[in-house]
């Protein structure tokens, strides 16, 4: 199947990536169809190994089954101690984009190369307690930086507002080196804080609870998140 890495999208476009962690896992196919019907731009898949974070979610066979229900790009967030061991299985299962943690046990530059060799775009992410400066060695090589705005491991947590400053900092670091990498924000995003996240420079918006458990329905929830397009920094929305 043809891959659709993030490099196919411009970073002046606000993309909504609903996290299936908030889905009914026994109805995954229907939930994916509903997200596509609601005009989500991609699907965020949280992969946890029970070691890097204290929770376990999906493996490659489930991702491969999900692939049959939607053509949307799969935005895979690896929360694994050893991401290098799982890049290929997830890419083969249908990932289009793969993000891994700077805190994991691997050679980050080698993992980025591995991801690119699989035809996927590569992202790096960091926990709320890790400083932005930890990303400096790999910043020039990634297609996306994911700012975690909650402690990774569980959906439905409260957004940490201090992560807005970290988002602006990463935005400035990327522009300084001439990178047009996307910035994604993940954790506790709602209609109340999405505009602040976009204004800080995040153009890829992950939302689990706020989409799949929205009282107004998935379609209205995705449309409302897309409204934050107007809040993206001017320099980007004009270019
Ligand atoms: C947490 C995950 C998030 C989470 C977001 O480890 O990375 O993707 O599912 O869920 P909400 O939007 O409910 O915080
Ligand atoms: Zn995630």
What does this entry look like structurally?
This protein is an alpha/beta fold and 239 residues long. The protein has one domain: Aldolase class I (TIM Barrel, Alpha-Beta Barrel). 30% of the residues lie in helices and 17% in strands. The chain contains 9 helices and 8 strands. The chain has helices at residues 28-37, 60-66, 87-93, 108-117, 163-176, 194-199, 209-212, 218-226, 234-238, and strands at residues 15-18, 43-48, 74-79, 97-101, 121-126, 144-148, 182-186, 204-207. Strands 1-8-7-6-5-4-3-2 form an 8-stranded parallel β-sheet. α2 packs parallel to α3. The radius of gyration is 16 Å and the shape is globular. It binds D-xylitol-5-phosphate (DX5) and zinc ion. D-xylitol-5-phosphate binds next to β2, β8 and α7.
Write the layout of secondary structure elements.
Blueprint: E1 15-18, H1 28-37, E2 43-48, H2 60-66, E3 74-79, H3 87-93, E4 97-101, H4 108-117, E5 121-126, E6 144-148, H5 163-176, E7 182-186, H6 194-199, E8 204-207, H7 209-212, H8 218-226, H9 234-238
Parallel strand pairs: 1-8, 2-3, 3-4, 4-5, 5-6, 6-7, 7-8
Helix pairs in contact: 2-3
The structure holds D-xylitol-5-phosphate and zinc ion.
The site of D-xylitol-5-phosphate (DX5) has 21 residues, from strand 2, strand 8 and helix 7.
Précis, in short:
The protein has 9 helices and 8 strands. The chain has 239 residues and is of the alpha/beta class. The protein has one domain: TIM Barrel.
Which strand-content bin applies to the residues? 15-25%
Q: Give the CATH topology.
A: TIM Barrel
End-to-end Cα distance: 31 Å
The CATH homologous superfamily is named Aldolase class I
Helix and strand run? EHEHEHEHEEHEHEHHH
Q: How many H/I helices?
A: 9
Which percent bin holds the helix content? Answer: 25-40%
Q: Show unreliable segments.
A: none
How many strand elements?
Answer: 8
CATH architecture: Alpha-Beta Barrel
